[in-house]
Amino acid sequence: MVPQPHSYAADADESSPKSEGQHTGSTRQFHAPSHHSDARHGDHSLRDAKSYARHVFRSFDTNDDGTLDFKEYIIALHMTSTGKTTQKLEWAFSLFDVDKNGYINKTEVTELCQAIFKLIPKEDQSKLPEDENTPEKRANKLWAYFEKKDNERLAEGEFIKGLIENENAMCLIHYEPMKQQSFLFIPSPSGFC
What we know:
Elements: E1 7-9, E2 22-24, E3 27-29, H1 37-41, H2 45-60, E4 67-69, H3 70-82, H4 85-96, E5 103-105, H5 106-117, H6 122-125, H7 135-145, E6 153-155, H8 156-164, H9 167-172
Antiparallel strand pairs: 1-4, 2-3, 5-6
């Protein structure tokens, strides 16, 4: 008998108290922090990270079974930390492709920008350029680089080509505060932002 790989579940049963990484049998399930966790930590970071974490989890769960098996986890770890620029951009595309239909639209870009903005401290948001200091403005600015109408969609190849050819657009898909400390929510594919 071959042992089953560990897997990490996307959602927890909110009604029962569980800890992160609770081990049950041969399956290790990841449970996102509850919405009450932020009070114990004195900040909003855990609660606000939940929507972004769900998008990241969705993009790593390549077989759509609601769990991350060891193989999916290792591939995701490698791709986001040491992968080539195009691999990182393929992953970034999957992050924006909320409905997993192979295209992204402006609504999906806005949704992901909203999740990312929940992670940016308010004081840092106020330091962003005027035309990208809200999720909607950042989504509009990014979408404009692709020269698409609001109701059009963008294929993966167009997304990757547009970002590679435009440093400013590339900088819009991640956040790095003040060039001092890296808090990239989407790994910088080339490190120039």
